[in-house]
Write a structure and sequence with these properties.
Elements (H helix, E strand, L loop, with lengths): L1 H15 L1 H16 L10 H28 L4 H8 L3 H27 L5 H39 L2 H17 L1
Helix pairs in contact: 2-6, 3-5, 3-6, 5-6
Length: about 180
Amino acid sequence: MKEEGIIYKIIQFCIKYIGLVLAIVSFIIIIKFFHISFLKIENINDILSNIINFIAISTGFLMTTLSILASANNSRVMKKLAKYKKIKKINIYFAEPIIISIILVISCIIEMGLKENNLFEKINVAFIIALTVSFIVDFFKISFLCMNILQEMMEENCSDNKFKKIKANVDNAFKEK
């Protein structure tokens, strides 16, 4: 019985922090089994600057979504989330990828400055890949959560008759294409 409780807690931790778990696992796998180096790639600075741009744009979307949720504080859904003390959890969900994005940008900038292939470069490459995996997983996790919250808010704002009419119009629009 006690063992089952520990396994359950480990599984719950892995589900809750799936981005972090995937980052750690991918970091270990890359360090242990692959000998990856960005220095062998000719246009590494372009790749790293594209990673930085992607992270910056994605973080901008996260911040915009957060501001939309903050402006909807009078909605039934947000009041229910506050009643059950889930706002703090949502804040943590948003904080995690934002912190990861800052660390990832710093790692990419450091990698741009490296000129020789050494142990630090290998660790930094694995770190960048692991953080990118973590960021993408967390980004999709938050996107899914926010889509559900926004869907609830949309359904709240539409009465049953209005919602059926809007749904019929949307269904007809997609049938025509």
